[in-house]
Amino acid sequence: MTDKYDVLVIGSGPGGYVAAIRAAQHGLRTAVIERDRLGGICLNWGCIPTKALLHGADVAHTLANLRPLGFSTSGVEFDMAQLVEFSRGVSGRLSDGIGYLMKKNGIDVISGTARLTGKGVVGVREGGDPASPLTEYRADHIILATGARPRSVPGVTPDGDRVWTYFDALVPQELPKSLLVIGSGAIGVEFASLYHDLGSAVTLVELAPQIMPVEDATVAGHVRRQFEKRGIEIHTGASVSELTVGADSVAVTVKCADGTLEERVVERVLVAAGIQGNIENLGLADVGVEVDRGFVTTDEWCRTSTFGIYAIGDVAGAPCLAHKASHEGVLCVDKLAGAPHVTPLDKDYVPGCTYSRPQVASLGLTEDQARATGRSLQIGQFDLQASGKALAIGEAEGFVKTIFDADSGELLGAHMVGPEVTEQIQGFGIARSLEATGDDLADVVFAHPTLSEAMHESVLSALGRPINM
Q1: In contact, 26 and 337? CB cutoff 8 Å
Q2: Domain Pyridine nucleotide-disulphide oxidoreductase dimerisation, which positions (predicted)?
Q3: What is the rounded distance in angstroms from the CA atom of residue 454 to the CA atom of residue 381?
Q4: 152 pLDDT band (50/70/90 cuts)?
Q5: Active site residue: 61, 196, 327, 448, which one?
Q6: E strands of 106-160, at which residues?
Q7: Which residue, 372, 305, 369, 302, is CA-closest to 336?
Q8: How far apart are alpha carbons 254 and 179 in whole angstroms?
Q9: What are the helix and strand counts (H, E) for the chain?
């Protein structure tokens, strides 16, 4: 044994590093074990670099639509490698920032691959080499924050060249002329939108009856229409039945919803069919930590089945979102430290955001889910075609939809699609947290002209007193 900690965190993503900082703020001796770069998947290969690339796609869209504003361009060139370099630079800068935060808060950073080797004991091998010496660390509390990785699709094996995971899609050597995306969750939709705006011909294949399966059907339908209007080919209720990789292309057989087979030849295929928890080689079974369908089982306080071991973020299951991981990191540490007024996370009301064009943001129940509860509902929707600000910026395709319990006024769900809705959804999150009713939200004064006025108008619509529609 080389050292003893109060809290030992395995993984330094948005759950792990936040948990470590919160533990240090409680005065607990804390260390983080990381086998790669600080910041985890989100910062290095997920949320942040994807948004940097999407910013480039937004610029491409703006350049292609300047004439209505009185501008014209000529001789504009695009360098995919430069955009990738910008994206990687952003990630590198933020990873260095996490290192600074660890030092600032007095948190030890241990480099290597971790494994639970006994009660309150974690063994670490530098670089993950089985031949390297094992160093063991003891801790009263061990937090698993190991994240997740892309899920595989039967018969489709990523090779990093012709068949990509999202890791590969973040660092392409060149822009593919054509791309087929398998899966239309947030990752698949974002990359489909991104690559199409940059100039690739994109096909999107989804097994579920609608794209964006977890979103409200009205929102998903709107995004599909917008994607198809842009020229993105979409197949729902479909699957890839055969895939053959050639020297410079991929032949794909798509089994459509009606059972027919359609052939496509594309330059690249992106597998974006969900993620699975990083639970392997952690020694979970050896110490009695239960798992279910590839994720660690936890209670409302992030405690596993083994005393003193916790799990937060993606490794603990849906919703697999960075902000959920960070919130769980704080919740978990506050609870184990005995902080007052700690409340469990209501996972139904964690906001989900998709940074495609159009953007999508939502929290709470979809309309179908709300109706299934048997409650009496008040549902309002406001179209951005009636928004002065949306029209002024040329981005009036979209809407805001709100769902309330008609008897109590409780906000059950909020669903937004359109420009910058990912920056606005927090307003409904605050309202929900403060238990604001529809009447309370109706009394709020929204600034004019703003995109967020659509939120207010949607609430008024739900209450049966719309003004601008």
Answers
A1: yes
A2: 350-458
A3: 9
A4: confident
A5: 448
A6: 108-111, 113-118, 121-125, 134-144, 148-150
A7: 302
A8: 14
A9: 13, 24
Cβ distance 38 to 60 under 8 Å?
no
Two tokens at 418?
């359109």
CB 16 within 8 A of CB 32: yes
Place of tokens 């079974």: 285
Beta bridge partners of 234: 204
Please state, as a whole number, how many other Cβ atoms lie within 10 Å of the Cβ of residue 267.
17
Q: Which residue has the tokens 């890839």?
A: 240
Cβ–Cβ < 8 Å for 278, 148: yes
Could you give the percent of the chain with pLDDT greater than 90?
Answer: 91
Complete DSSP assignment for 265-313: EESEEEE-S-EEE--TTS-TGGGT--EETTEE---TTSB-SSTTEEE-G
Whole-angstrom distance, CA of residue 362 vs CA of residue 439: 20
The continuous run of DSSP H or E covering 254 comes out as strand 250-255
Structure tokens at 147: 């994240």
With beta carbons less than 8 A apart as the criterion, state whether 15 and 326 touch: yes
Lowest mean pLDDT across 23-27, 152-156, 190-194, 261-265: 152-156
Indicate the SS3 state at residue 181: strand
Residues whose CB falls within 8 Å of the CB of residue 7, separated by 6 or more in sequence, listed in order? 19, 20, 23, 28, 29, 30, 31, 139, 140, 141, 142, 143, 333, 336
CA distances from 128 to 15, 23, 133, 135, 311 (A): 22, 26, 10, 12, 21
pLDDT in tens, 403-427: 999 999 999 999 999 999 999 999 9
End-to-end CA distance of the chain: 69
Please report the pLDDT score of residue 469 as a whole number.
87
**CA distance to 100, 386, 422, per residue, from 354 (Å):** 30, 23, 7
Amino acid at position 443, single letter: D
- At 269, the amino acid letter reads V
Q: Which two tokens stand for residue 137?
A: 């660390």
pLDDT in tens, 64-76: 989 898 998 887 8
Look up 235 and say whether it is catalytic.
Answer: no
Residue 1 has pLDDT above 70, yes or no: no
CA distance 355 to 353: 6
Q: What confidence tens digit (pLDDT) does each residue in 104-144 have?
A: 999 999 999 999 999 999 999 987 677 788 999 999 999 99
In this prediction, residue 313 carries a pLDDT of: 97
Structure tokens at 332: 């978990």
User: Can you give the length of the chain in residues?
Assistant: 469
User: 334 burial class (0-12, 13-18, 19+ CB within 10 angstroms)?
Assistant: buried
Contacts of 372 (CB under 8 A, 6+ apart): none
Full DSSP string of 348-387 = GGS-EEE-SSSEEEEEE--HHHHHHTT--EEEEEEEGGG-
Q: Answer whether the bond into residue 213 is a cis peptide, omega within 30°.
A: no
Query: Could you read off the pLDDT of 331-350 as tens digits, one per residue?
Result: 999 999 999 999 999 999 99
